[in-house]
Amino acid sequence: MKLYQLALGVLLVMGISSAQAETIRVAIGTQDTTINCATGGLLIRELHLLEKYLPHDGKYKNVQYDIEWKNFTSGAPLTNEMVAGRLDFGAMADFPGSLNGAAFEKAGKKSIFLSVLSGSTIGSGNGIVVPKDSSVQSFKDLKGKTISVPFASTAHGLLLRAIKAQGWDAERDVQVITQAPEIAGSALQSGKIDAHADFVPFADLFPYRGFARKIYDGSQSNAPTFHGSLVTGEFAQKYPEIVVAYLRAAIEANRLISAEPEKYSELIAKTTGIEPEVVYLFHGPLGLQTRDFTWKPEYRQALKTSIETLKLLKKTDVDLDVNSFIDDHYLRDAFKASNLDYDAALKNYSKLPLKAKDATTGKAITDFKRVTQIWVQGEPLLRSYATPESAFVDLKKLTATGKKVRVVYVQDRNSGIKLLADQAWYARDTKGQLNAFLLKGQAEDWVKTNGGSVVDFNAAQAK
Q1: Signal peptide span per the entry (predicted)?
Q2: Which of 52, 116, 262, 428 has the most CB within a 10 Å radius?
């Protein structure tokens, strides 16, 4: 009888303990098609990385986790869900991130900008495109034209800076209208707009799909831009260890895509519908933007600029304090737990390096100014070449043997950004060497100084 009572007591205690076990909701808002947010959302979700790092000791010993994911196409509705308490984390760019902080402050709450995910200290990633057959070759040709842009976005800020740099009046010299990317794509194809300014990845996605040309890259504005991760202040205060776990998962996602960019570009493409060739353009070695989690001074300034611009546009009247909005101590803890040196990373401005041998000579590539890459259908890795000349010789051979080439990339000689080779202009010097540029005018300027001739992609392949 005593043995029975003892067993019954144990069962009762276990039942009470089980009933009292805490369930913690971890709700994360993503922007899958904004591929620069991938390491803070899509990849963590698809690879189940958060589960790997969530704490299960101390006060979390008997905790069960309810992980929720919700995808958005822009930052505004994601912010609304966070303010309403239906999401704990979110990923977005600097402009919508500023509006996130302002919305929380308006509601008497607080959000925290945890980390950068991907960005460019020179502004590359955002851009302006025109219809493929447009006569426009540079931004200065857009005076008096109609330009669409998603209002209050980071691309809107880029457009305003480009207008100001020309000395134009934004209300008289151009007609700026608001359009979401999916609307602008159709408008470009039907000729209803003269140009469209947009954020990652649309200024490169539209040209890749063949109905637009990029005539302005954010790097020309030299204005830093980034995407990053945020968390509600209430969640961070209550569960700081989970915040660190989330950041460790993001760091792991970054490590994986750095090691195998082709493989994970395919995964991102499968999930988003954004072609892997465009994903690699951003996330591959020497890509358009750098996946950099640290709060470099340029990114802090980008956030400050976004707040000031949004106030100018009358999209907010909140004086958001950047220094209190950004809190890097969670990120520093995550770096330490991942055996990484945050301060060393903070000082590192390098893009993801290309560690490759020339596909023709077999020699290690050490100079990246004229690097060219070819992605052949059916090959898991890209072929890399030290020069466009050697790459284009190989390109002819591939085409002659019936192999399908998915994409060719070159590096802009001035800015170092990665370009779609068929969209670039080339300066061929007197020795036959090719240098790639985004704009025809840039190639012409090179020729004026160095001699030679300006050619397009097709002509560049002919000797």
Answers
A1: 1-21
A2: 116
